[in-house]
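Lab manual, section 2.4: Encoding a predicted structure.

Procedure: take the sequence of the chain (169 residues), apply the prediction step described in section 2.3, and record the output as structure tokens. A sample record is shown.
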Amino acid sequence: MAVHAMQRQMVANGLSGSHVPPEYLHVTLHWLGDYEDMPHELLCRAKEAGGSVEMAPFGVGFDRIGSLGGAGMGGLALTGAAELKKLRQFQRALASAMKASGIGHHIRKRFNPHVSLLYCDEHVPREPIAPIRWRVDELVLIDSLIGRGKHVVLGKWPLQSRQMGFSDW
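Recorded output:
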């Protein structure tokens, strides 16, 4: 669905550029930095944080397409608002886990949920689209090899409902 929405916008607006392959579409919750080799200590703490996030799977929906920035800032991304409340909660839960793991300085203070589809110079005004929805059922730590068009999975954790203990009653 996202690829079709991107293709429609490319044709409608005469866009060209580098598109994100479908298997690499993602939402960045927090950014740990650009490294040739991620520092071992940071990787360990990021994995600790990822493994400690407790949240049940949830749905998201992106209902707008266009450039993220104002005039002069290009690219094409999915954005939205109404169906992203749980995603914002997930981002905050990960932030708490990162802080507890000692990497709180990497927490993204501003979070503008989006899915980058196309990198280009042209600016495309945002417009509503039929919502593109999917179920978020895992947290993935990836190393995006910038300029090489490759993602390396460094960690993966399924989202699961927290089991209630006696103290929760």
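Check your result against the sample. The helical segments are 2-13, 40-52, 85-100.
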